[in-house]
Design a protein that fits this description.
Blueprint lengths: L2 E10 L2 E11 L4 E5 L6 H9 L6 E6 L2 E3 L4 H6 L2 E4 L11 H5 L11 H15 L14 H14 L4 E5 L7 H16 L3 E6 L2 H7 L2 E6 L2 E7 L4 H9 L16 E10 L6 E9 L14 H8 L7 E6 L2 E2 L5 H4 L1
Parallel strand pairs: 3-8, 3-9, 6-7, 7-8
Antiparallel strand pairs: 1-2, 1-4, 4-5, 9-10, 11-12, 11-13, 13-14
Helix pairs in contact: 4-5
């Protein structure tokens, strides 16, 4: 389905989040929407998906102007959006989530929907147990479920908001293969991202936004330097590297354990020295949030010891850490 956006504006008070945006995305293509945080990417896609109402402008599907309020109306027109954190129901099963949004609810023809779900997962190379609770799935698996659920609702325009954040490299590869299949079937894919490598590998074209405006559009193959210039307003340059020697230990965690949702901390050790920049890596839900809260005194560990500048801080509150 061909999508055309004409002079789209969105105001949040004095903030002009989208400022006269015009785009055309042909059927069967994968279009990247690039821009740094705050560029207006997510706002524009939420307008297209019905989550946000535009202030002004026109949306055309196959040259037909459409007006809709809400995601259910957008879905009936064939537009669906997959968020970075999918909108699902963790206490329910995969099959029950798949059936959400049906006119007859989740009790109608459950056996038939199970067959459809299993057929779709095989087609795209996904591995989903219909009876598993969604709370037990990884972020990548939840994305897979939401994609096939939207397709079952008749979506022809699929919007993905930062879909590769928090998923494994294998899940990224599986996702990209599925999106290529959908494009080959005539579906229109819009990929919101700030990762150039995702756009370069997957997309047929790219639109770059900055401060709510379109800075430029480009077809594959892409000029990476030009894309970066459009994104940030200047040619990319590397800052001079400053060599520093780490100083004294400022934070030490020894055998720290703390609960936390799907993944807490289990006998975690960490040392951070003065003058260091330490990265904290891991898939979403791997315990990074718990680590930071414990390290800042916002959450008390069940076990282990925390020292800040050689002072033992285990069990003390946030204000003592300052």
């Amino acid at each position: 389905m061909r999508v055309t956006l004409r002079d789209i504006h969105k105001h949040y008070g004095k903030v002009h989040a989208n400022d006269g945006i015009c785009m055309e995305i042909p059927s069967g293509s994968i279009q990247g929407i690039l821009g740094e945080n705050g560029a207006g990417k997510s706002t524009l896609m939420k307008i297209l998906a019905g989550y946000v109402h535009k202030t002004d402008g026109s949306i055309l599907l196959e040259d037909r102007s459409v007006e809709y309020k809400g995601t259910s109306q957008a879905t009936r027109l064939g537009i669906g959006m997959l968020y970075q954190d999918p909108l699902d129901f963790p206490p329910l099963s995969v099959l029950e989530n798949y059936m959400m949004g049906r006119v007859h609810g989740i009790s109608h023809k459950k056996t038939s929907h199970r067959r459809q779900l299993e057929s779709s997962t095989r087609h795209f190379g996904f591995h989903l147990d219909p009876d598993a609770k969604v709370r037990s799935l990884t972020v990548g698996e939840r994305q897979q479920l939401e994609i096939i659920r939207l397709l079952a609702l008749g979506v022809k325009v699929l919007i993905l908001d930062e879909p590769t954040t928090g998923i494994s490299s294998l899940q990224r590869q599986t996702l990209f293969e599925a999106l290529r299949k959908l494009a080959a079937q005539g579906k229109t894919i819009l990929l919101v991202s700030h990762k150039l490598e995702d756009v370069e590998v997957l997309c047929h074209g790219v639109t770059v936004l900055r401060q709510g405006r379109v800075m430029g559009e480009m077809r594959h193959p892409f000029d990476t330097r030009k894309l970066l210039e459009w994104m940030f307003g200047a040619p990319p340059s590397s800052p001079p590297r400053v060599d520093t020697r780490p100083g004294k230990v400022t934070l030490a965690m020894e055998k720290v354990s703390a609960p936390g949702g799907r993944a807490g901390l289990l006998e975690c050790d960490a040392v951070v020295k003065q003058g260091e920049v330490v990265g904290l890596a891991g898939l979403e839900g791997s315990g990074q949030g718990v680590f930071l809260r414990v390290a800042a005194g916002l959450e008390k560990p069940e076990k282990g010891m925390i020292r800040v500048r050689q002072r033992t801080m285990t069990g003390q509150g946030y204000h003592a850490f300052n």
